[in-house]
Design a protein that fits this description.
heterodimer, A: about 325 residues, alpha/beta, Alpha-Beta Plaits, about 35% helix, B: about 375 residues, mainly alpha, abc type-2 transporter like fold, 14 helices, about 5% strand
Chain lengths: ~325, ~375
Amino acid sequence: MSTENRTPAIRCRNLRKTYNGNVEAVRGLDLEIRVGECFGLLGPNGAGKTTTIEILEGLLSPTSGEVEVLGRSWGAHSRELREMLGISLQETRLNEKLTVRETLELFASFYRRPRPPLQVMEEMELNEKSDAWVGKLSGGQKQRLAVATALVADPKILFLDEPTTGLDPQSRRQLWEIVRQFQRRGGTVLLTTHYMDEAERLCDRIAIIDHGVMIASGTPAELVEGLGGHRMVEFAATGGQVAPAVWSSLPGVEAVHQENGTVVLSVRRVHETVPALLAVLEDRGSDLLHLTTRDASLEDVFVHLTGRRLRED
Amino acid sequence: MANVDTEREIAIPPGQEPPLPLAPRENGRWAGYWHLVVAGLTVLRREPEIIFWVFVFPIVMAAGLGMATRNRPPDASRVAVVSGPGAQRALDLLKPSSQKGLVRAEMVSAQDAWNRFRLGKYDLVVTPQANGSFEYRYDPARSESLLARTTVDDVMQAAAGRKDLLSTSAHVSSEPGARYVDFLIPGLLGMNLMASGLWGIGFALVEMRQRKLLKRYAATPMRRSDFLLALASGRLLLTLLQLVLLLGFGVVAFHMRVIGSWTSILFISTIGAFSFGALGLLTACRAQKAESASGLINVVMMPMWILSGVFFSYEHFPAVMLPFIKVLPLTAFNDALRAIVLEGASLAAQQARLLILCLWGGVSFLLAVRWFRWT
C-alpha cells in the first residue's frame, strides 16, 4: 500500500495526439495525479479534454508521449488496469431496453471482483428505479447510472468525462456528493468539466487546458491567487472607450480586461481602488452605469489567461 | 478494506439471511459472456419489431406466397370471345372444357377484349371471322397466353370432331416437393439468415458504436472476443428457432416433406448463420453512423436478394452470369438447403457449397477482426 501511495495514480509526459496527420488535439501535456485526490481538467469545448482523458483511459493511443496509470503502462498491463478503473464516458447511451439492475449486473459481470450491484444502486439512490428500463430514466438518473456502471467495478480510479453536462442543479449536486463519497473511501478521481464552479468545489487540483496545452495548474485557490488580485471590480460607464492604461494605473489594480463595454479589474484591495475609480470617472464627466465587486473565480483566471470566456452562453 | 465498511452500512433485518446479491462475489471466466448472452436475449424479447421481422414476417410471407400459388386453379386459361356471329359457336365448343375448369371463356365486345387482354386479364382473344373460322390473338412472350392458345385450339378442334391419331395418356402430379411453396420455404430461410446476419449483427453493432456503447464496453475488462461470441450465439439461437418454426410451418400448413436429415439441416444452417454473421461483422466493422451502415447492408444484400434464387430459380439469368451467381453465399446456402430438404442430399454431396460458405465466412471474419473499431 505504501509504495502505491508514492506512485502517482496517473502520470503522463509530453502527451501528443494528432488526428488524421494534421489536427493537433493535444500538444505536449504533462500531468501527475496523486492517489486519493480529485483532479479536474478544465477547459472550453474542443480544448482537448476528452482526447486527453481517453488516452489516459487507454481507449485512444497517443501519437507520442508516455502514460502510466498506477505505475503500469497500457501496452503491457491493459487487462490488469481495466480491472482497477471505473470509467464514465461523455454521453454513453446505455441499452434502453435493459433495466437499471440488469445493466449494473451486466457491467459487474465483466470484473473479477465487482461490488454488489444492489449496494451500488442503493448508494446512487437508484434502487427505486431498479426495475425501470434505462430508456425511461430522467437525465440525472441516466447519468447516475452511468457513474454506477463505473463504481460497480470497485475501481481505484474513477474517470468522469463531463459528468454533469446538461443536468439540473439538484442532479449536479447529487453527483458531486457521489464523487466526494468515492474520494472519502480512498478513491482517486479524474474528471473533465467546462463548469468552473464544479471544478472549484469538487477538485483538489485543476489543470486548465486550452487548444491542447496546459495553460495553468494548481489548487483552485492557487490559481485564483495567481491572478494577483483576489477581488474583481466590474463596472460600465458612459463616455466611450478609455485606454486600459488609465485603469491599470489606478491603485491596487493587477490586471485589466474589457469586454462589451464592461471593464473588469483584478484588484488587491477594493477599498483603495474603488474611490480612485470613482474619482477618475467624475473627472472625465462619465456616469457610472453599474459597479459590482466580487471574489475572483476560475472563470477570471481563464479570461485572464486566454482573453476569452470559458463558456460562451 | 474500505469496501467491507460500506457493506456493513446496509442494514440487514435480524434473523434474516442477507439478500444473495449482496454477498461478495468473484466472477468466473465466463460470467461476462453469459451475462452478455442473457442481456442480448432480454433485449430481443423486449423489441416487438424484432419478434415480428424474425418470426412472424417470414411465416406470413410463406403463407401468402404459398396460398397464392396453391389456390389458383392450375391452368384455367382466361379467354375472351369477341361478340358477334359465330361467338356462340365458339362458346359451345369450349363448354366441355369450361366444365373441367381448363378454360374460362366470356363473351365481350372487341374493345373490352383487347383492353383487358393488354392488361393481362385475358390470356387469349378469340375473334370469329366472317368465313366461319376463328382468329387467335395471343402474346408468345407470356407463357400462359401461349398455353391458352394451344389449349383452346386443342379443345375446339376436338369438340369439332378432330380425332387424335396417336394414343397417349397423362398422369397428373402435384406431389409435395415439387411445388412452388417447397421451393420457396428454403429460399425464405436463406433470405432470413442473411438478413439476420447483416441487420442483427452488422446493424446492431454500428448502432452500439454510434451510441458509444461499444466504447463503454471496451473500457471494461470484458473480453472483446466474448462480446462478439455472445452476439453470435444469441443470433444463432434465434436462427435455429426460426428454422424450426418456418420448416415446421411448411410441414404443418403445406404438408411439405422434409426428406433430408434434420442434423444436416441444422448443420448447414449453423454454417450459413456463421457465414452471414461474419459478413455482417465485416459490413459493420468501421461504419460510424446507422444510416451509412444501412446503405452498406442494402448494397450487400440486394444482389443476393435478386440473384440467389430466393423467390425464383436463378437459372432464368443469362448463362454467363451463372458462375458468379453460384459463388454468392446465399446461392450456395439456398442450393444446399434445397438439396438437403427437398432431395435428401447428404452433407458430403454439398461440400463445394459448404466450402463457399466457409470461405465467405472465414475471410469476412478475419478482415472484420482486423479492421474492427470499438470507438
